[in-house]
Design goal:
This protein is of the alpha/beta class. It has six helices and nine strands. The two termini are about 25 Å apart.
Length: about 200
């Protein structure tokens, strides 16, 4: 599995976020994207995800030697980021049922197992809008990890996580780095330490 960025540039109105970025991401494994605030880390992830288009340059994708069209790459990816919103009137079980119709979850993954892994079993009947920021982050991270797709994008994944939750997350990521191409954008040194290769914006 491979994502290739060739001379990628992104501009908003007259302001260039970054120019002529070339990078190759080959998996399975974990890549880290580091850089100061405003350097374009989140923008790069949005470009890779297909949500945004480059102002210049190209991004290409291959899986098992076969090219994937940019228009369909979203079906091969899962994403977790603090700014991604979910329907907060749902319980976790309701969210999983809706999400599962859009993208496949791991085989045998049910609501009970999901809640247990995320330490949310006591909150199974609670609408997500009543979750703390840390609970929401654990839920979104686990949902992204448990989606049965080869590419995983993580933007500031340890945001809102305490020390115990960070350890929980790093153990999960360590398991999935053997089967997924994971690209993680972060300024957190703990996040970046679990990456096998690092790109600085």
């Amino acid at each position: 599995m491979n994502i290739e960025c060739q001379s990628v540039s992104k501009r908003y109105t007259l302001n260039w976020i970054f120019k002529e970025l070339s990078a190759s991401f080959t998996g399975p494994g974990i890549y880290g994207i580091a850089g100061s605030n405003g350097s374009g880390k989140s923008t790069l992830l949005s470009l890779i995800s297909g949500y945004l288009s480059p102002s210049k340059g190209t991004i290409s994708y291959t899986l098992n030697g076969q090219a994937i069209e940019r228009e369909s790459i979203f079906t091969y990816m899962s994403i977790a980021a603090p700014y991604i919103e979910v329907i907060e009137e749902y319980t976790v079980g309701e969210l999983l049922r809706v999400y599962g119709k859009l993208k496949p979850l791991e085989q045998h993954m049910d609501t009970k197992e999901f809640l247990n892994i995320a330490y949310l079993e006591k909150d199974r009947k609670k609408p997500i809008k009543y979750f703390s920021s840390g609970m929401k982050q654990r839920m979104q991270l686990l949902l992204a990890l448990k989606t049965d797709v080869p590419f995983l994008l993580l933007d500031e994944p340890s945001s809102f996580l305490d020390v115990k939750a960070k350890d929980w997350f790093y153990q999960l990521v360590d398991t999935y780095k053997k089967s997924k191409l994971i690209i993680m954008a972060s300024n957190d040194e703990d996040d970046l330490r679990c990456c096998e290769q690092l790109i600085t914006m």
